[in-house]
Design a protein that fits this description.
Oligomer: homodimer
Helix content of chain A: 55-70%
DNA sequence: CCTGTTATGTATCGATTGCTACATATTTAG
DNA sequence: CTAAATATGTAGCAATCGATACATAACAGG
C-alpha cells in the first residue's frame, strides 16, 4: 500500500499543499504537454524537490494522470456530463461548445484543451499516457453519440440522422477550437465558431440529413484543377 | 555559403539520396512530432549517421522545416492553393476537406496533419519551430478568409456573411479532423465529417447568416443544469 | 526519553538528448 | 601525381532527461 495520498498521521507531515501542487503541475502540463514538461519545470512550479514529488505522486506519468483527472473535474475544462443531462441534445452541445470556447481562452491559463493536446504523438515512451488521453477523447465521442441517439429516439431529431457522423462533426469542432486557441484566436472568434457549428444544427438534422444529396456542387467536381 | 544542398561537384560525393532521406525524415516527424522525433530515430530511418545529416541539412530544426516544406508541397497534405483557384468558394472548401480526409488516413502513413500536430506546445527550446508551424496555420486561415471574401464580392454568398467566422469554422473542422484521425477515425468517418461541414454551408451562408438569431434554444438556456 | 515512520534537501544516478571532433575515404582541379 | 574539398563512420562531447540513495528532520506511539 503506497502512501501516495493516504494520510495515516504517522511520520513527518507533508510540508506542502498536495492539491495546490497538483494544480500547479496541471498548468505546466497544460501549457507544455506531457513530454514537453520537464521535472525541473514541474518541481519549480510546484515549489518542491523531486523526492517530494515522487513520494506524493509516484511518477511523472502518475502525476500527469492525476492532473488530467483534476482538469476534467474542475471548471478548467468543459463539462461533458452536462451534455448528457441537458434537456435537449442541441442545448447540451451548444453549451459544451460555448464552455469550451470560454475554457480555452482563460486569462492566465494555457490556451486550448489539456485532453485534446496533452499527448498526441505516441513516441513509445509515452504510449500509456497517449492511449489514456485517447480514451478520454473517444469516451467523449461516445457521450456525444449516445446523446444524439437518445435525441433520435425521443423525437428531437429525425431517426434518419447519422448520429455517429454528427457526433464526430461536433467533436471535430471542439478539438479544432483547441488548435485555434493555441494559435491566438480570441474568445469571440471561438464563440463565433461555436455559434456557426450550432447554426449548422438545422442542416445536419434536417429530415434528409447528412446522407442527403445536398452537395451536388461540392464533390462531383473532382477533375483536374 | 553553406553547401547544405548546393552541389559543386567538388569533393567526395554524397553517398545517399538526399530527397529520399528527407522523405523518410518527414514520415518520422509526421508520426512523432518535432520534439518526439529523436536523432537516433531520424538517422536510422534515413539510413545515415548524424554527421551526414548535419552536413546535408544543417540541424534538426532545419531538417524539420524542410520536411514541413516537402509535406506542404507534395500530395501528402491537402492542396490549400486549390482552395483559392477553385471556381467557387464552396467547391474549393469541399475539396479541401475531402482531400484532408483522404490525406489524414493514408495506409502506411501517419494519421492526421503534420502542420497541425507537428509542434503544438511551445517548450522554449522549440519556440522557433512552433511559431513557424503556427504561421503555416494562420496563413491557411487567411487563405480561407480571403477566398470567402472574394465569394462575397462575386455574389456567391451574401455580403452579410462573417467571413472570418466561417473561415475559422472550416479551419477548426480541418484541424479537428487531424485529432480524430489520430484517434483512429476511419476515412469514411472523416469524409462524413467533411460532408456534414459542407451540409452546413447553406446554414452558414444564408442571408441572415451566422449573426442571425437562429439559436434561440441553444444559449439562452444557460441557467443551472 | 526511544523507536518507528514518513518527508525533505542535497547530490547525484544511468540513460538519452542534440550535436560534433577527428581521422579516413572519395572526389575534382591542377 | 599532389592539393584542396567534401562526405563518412566512429566515438564521444556537454547538457538534460526521469528518477533515487542517502543522511537528516519532524512527527506519532509507546
Amino acid at each position: 500500500m503506497k502512501p501516495h495520498d493516504t494520510r495515516t498521521g504517522r511520520g513527518r507531515p507533508r510540508a506542502f499543499d498536495r492539491a495546490a501542487a497538483l494544480a500547479k503541475a496541471m498548468d505546466v502540463f497544460w501549457a507544455k504537454g506531457y513530454e514537453g514538461a520537464s521535472l525541473a519545470e514541474l518541481t519549480e512550479a510546484m515549489g518542491i524537490n523531486p523526492p517530494s514529488l515522487y513520494a506524493a505522486f509516484g511518477s511523472k506519468e502518475a502525476l500527469f494522470l492525476e492532473a488530467v483527472q483534476l482538469y476534467s473535474v474542475r471548471e478548467d475544462g468543459p463539462d461533458w456530463d452536462a451534455v448528457l443531462e441537458a434537456p435537449s441534445a442541441r442545448a447540451g452541445i451548444a453549451r459544451l461548445l460555448d464552455e469550451s470556447a470560454v475554457a480555452f481562452t482563460r486569462r492566465g491559463k494555457p490556451r486550448g484543451c489539456l485532453i485534446a493536446l496533452g499527448a498526441l504523438h505516441d513516441t513509445g515512451a509515452n504510449a500509456s499516457v497517449c492511449a489514456k488521453l485517447r480514451a478520454y477523447r473517444t469516451g467523449n465521442l461516445a457521450k456525444l453519440r449516445r446523446r444524439l441517439e437518445r435525441a433520435a429516439t425521443e423525437g428531437e431529431i429525425p431517426r434518419t440522422v447519422d448520429c455517429d457522423a454528427v457526433a464526430s462533426f461536433y467533436l471535430s469542432i471542439q478539438h479544432g477550437m483547441s488548435i485555434l486557441a493555441r494559435d491566438g484566436a480570441s474568445r469571440a472568434t471561438l464563440l463565433a465558431v461555436a455559434r456557426a457549428a450550432m447554426d449548422a444544427w438545422a442542416c445536419l438534422t434536417s429530415p434528409r440529413g447528412p446522407e442527403g444529396d445536398a452537395r451536388s456542387e461540392a464533390s462531383t467536381k473532382r477533375g483536374p484543377v
